[in-house]
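Lecture notes, part 5. Sequence design as translation. It can be helpful to think of inverse folding as translation between two languages: the language of shapes and the language of residues. The source text, in structure tokens, appears below.
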């Protein structure tokens, strides 16, 4: 059994790390292909170092670009590697262009694809990620669904139930494995002069929020209203996409917004854990906030992670400041009464990678791939 592991962006490295570690623990043959969709040190190599991951066996060096260009380049560069390595299974995680290209390259060679985080749907086809999710799911032989909602979505789309495995999300493995380590190693709160529970944390990188100047301004107006009401420092580790857009649009920011470069995972866990409130359009951060017991205001009109809303950990506000204030008021008044916020965890028990590898290793060898390659 040989497994090809594909990564390309920050969240894929973080959520694939437990799978890589489990391959190492079990002595399973594997190799890592990194598309380099993300390549800046703080979006890429910092995570390999912090998570103690082996360096990728292959770096495709595709970098940034228009969607088809990026996706096509990954496809072209991936194919000879898969032909040479002949894996039984290729694993992809999430919904990026790297995931779609990796799954397609493998599928065209008759190699089984395992999609980790299968069955998520925002039902918003304007999101490039939604297309990537749907196509990847329909090319996969192993669909690793987070929970029963995703199982039902996939079954409704006609995917054979035998291929769907409800396992949870590897985000729980990564987070639980690094919570204590990050508490012992990160000094980010002291470095930024932040008091635990006394700041808001923001991230934003969705094209719909940051690529259009008026939308980005609307987000900033939302932060203004929150700050006017609560006078909290708002910490914003800024995604390079958003940084580039702020520069392009010539937008200046108020001083209560503490803009910092993207931080490593250990620092980001501590920022999340000790934030009073998280505002984000990230997928993974909606999950991590929920797991950490920190309320999350999602700066989107929809989410492919409705479970965090169902348990009361998350609310969708788009860029509507009044909705954001209403959500903040509700949660912060509970905290002001000295009560704790808590909810059920819908995202896994921290042993998801083990389940994934149990499933892959107990299934039959990939005869189709052997015939084609
Ligand atoms: C990508 C994924 C998105 C995921 C996000 C995680 C797609 C379609 N999008 O979005 O689903 O949520 O990663 O963060 O696959 N840049 C750098 N350095 C880097 C990477 C990017 O400077 O290492 C800048 C470049 O200006 C680039 C821009 O960020 O053009 C956008 O990068 P890209 O990978 O295309 O999209 P993301 O917004 O990062
Ligand atoms: N993250 C990080 N440093 C940061 C911001 C985020 O380590 O400055 C981590 C975060 O803990 C989560 C992941 O990056 O695990 C989320 O990535 P992102 O928001 O870029 O992508 P998405 O989840 O939306 O695809």
């Amino acid at each position: 059994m040989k497994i090809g592991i594909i990564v390309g962006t920050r969240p894929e490295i973080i959520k694939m790390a437990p799978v890589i570690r489990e391959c190492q623990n079990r002595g399973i043959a594997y190799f890592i292909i990194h598309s380099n969709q993300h390549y800046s040190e703080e979006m890429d190599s910092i995570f390999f170092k912090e998570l103690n991951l082996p360096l990728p066996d292959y770096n495709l060096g595709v970098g940034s670009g228009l969607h088809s260009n990026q996706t096509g380049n990954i496809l072209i560069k991936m194919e000879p590697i898969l032909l040479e390595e002949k894996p039984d299974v290729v694993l992809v995680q999430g919904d990026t262009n790297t995931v779609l290209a990796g799954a397609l390259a493998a599928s065209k060679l008759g190699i089984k694809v395992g999609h980790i985080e299968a069955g998520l749907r925002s039902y918003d086809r304007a999101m490039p990620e939604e297309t990537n999710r749907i196509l990847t799911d329909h090319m996969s032989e192993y669909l690793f669904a987070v929970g029963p909602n995703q199982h039902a979505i996939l079954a409704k789309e006609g995917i054979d139930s035998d291929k769907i495995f409800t396992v949870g999300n590897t985000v729980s493995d990564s987070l639980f494995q690094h919570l204590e380590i990050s508490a012992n190693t990160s000094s980010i709160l002291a470095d930024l002069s932040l008091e635990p529970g006394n700041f808001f944390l923001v991230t934003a990188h969705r094209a719909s929020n940051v690529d259009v100047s008026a939308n980005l301004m609307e987000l900033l107006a939302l932060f203004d209203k929150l700050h006017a009401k609560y006078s909290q420092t708002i910490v914003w580790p800024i995604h390079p996409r958003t940084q580039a857009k702020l520069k392009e649009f010539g937008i200046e920011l108020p001083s209560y917004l503490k803009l910092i470069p993207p931080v490593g995972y250990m620092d980001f866990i501590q920022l999340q854990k000790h934030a009073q409130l998280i505002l984000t359009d990230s997928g993974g951060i909606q999950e991590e906030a929920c797991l950490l017991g920190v309320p999350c205001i999602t700066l989107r009109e929809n989410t492919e992670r409705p479970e965090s809303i169902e348990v009361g950990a998350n609310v969708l506000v788009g860029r509507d400041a009044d909705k954001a204030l209403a959500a903040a008021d509700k949660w912060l008044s509970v905290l002001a009464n000295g009560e704790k916020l808590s909810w059920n965890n819908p995202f896994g028990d921290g042993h998801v990678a083990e389940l994934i590898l149990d499933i892959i290793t107990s299934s039959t060898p990939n005869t189709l791939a052997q015939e084609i390659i």
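The translated text above is only one of many valid answers, since several sequences can fold into similar shapes. The CA atoms of residues 48 and 54 lie 7 Å apart.
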